[in-house]
């Protein structure tokens, strides 16, 4: 009886080895083809105003181009005191660099005016000279909600500068 069980163990071992090999081959295939799909989708979604360049690994990278100029927008945000807004003006280069920026406080409540004032006195070093796509402020001098309004205005400016 033991001789009959021995071939069954060998057969089970072979089946398990085949299954593991198939799983490994499938994982390898998925890993090697998922990158190709991502770069194909990126290339297809590139608009005519964007530029494709090769980076040091010869991968295609989309560099967004902008219309250089002065842009302005009103950023909106919600504070505990209600709806607030902040006016933002940006001088933008065609490569997306922020050359200059001004923020005008427009707060309705006293507390919001204070936070907007703190923001205005401390944000420029975080923005000027940076690419507009890399700027996303979270908390500046204790003011996180004003940052939300600033980011909202910057999103509008990005849209205007690329559209």
The number of helical elements comes to: 3
Topology order in helix (H) and strand (E) letters: HEEEEEHH
Query: What's the pLDDT, averaged over the residues?
Result: 79
| Silhouette | elongated
Secondary structure category: alpha+beta
Number of E-state strands: 5
* Cα Rg: 27 Å
How much helicity do the residues have? 40-55%
The CATH level-2 architecture of the largest domain is identified as Alpha-Beta Complex
Strand order, biggest sheet?
A: 3-4-5
CATH C-level name of the largest domain: Alpha Beta
Largest sheet data? 3 strands, antiparallel
Strand content: 15-25%
Note the gap between the termini. Answer: 80 Å
Low-confidence stretches: 35-54
From the 3D structure, determine the CATH topology of the largest domain. Answer: Sufe protein. Chain: A
Number of domains: 2
Features:
single chain; 163 residues; alpha+beta; Sufe protein. Chain: A; two-stranded antiparallel sheet; 3 helices; 23% strand; elongated
Q: How does this structure look, described?
A:
This protein is α+β, with helices and mostly antiparallel strands. It has two domains: 2-63; 69-162, Alpha-Beta Complex (Sufe protein. Chain: A). 44% of the residues lie in helices and 23% in strands. It contains three helices and five strands, in the order αβββββαα. It has helices spanning 2-44, 110-120, 145-162; strands at residues 51-54, 60-63, 69-79, 82-92, 98-105. The strands form two sheets. The protein has a three-stranded antiparallel beta sheet with strand order 3-4-5. Strands 1-2 form a two-stranded antiparallel sheet. β3 and β4 (82-92) form a beta hairpin. The longest helix is centred in the first third of the chain and has 43 residues, at 2-44. The relative contact order is 0.12.
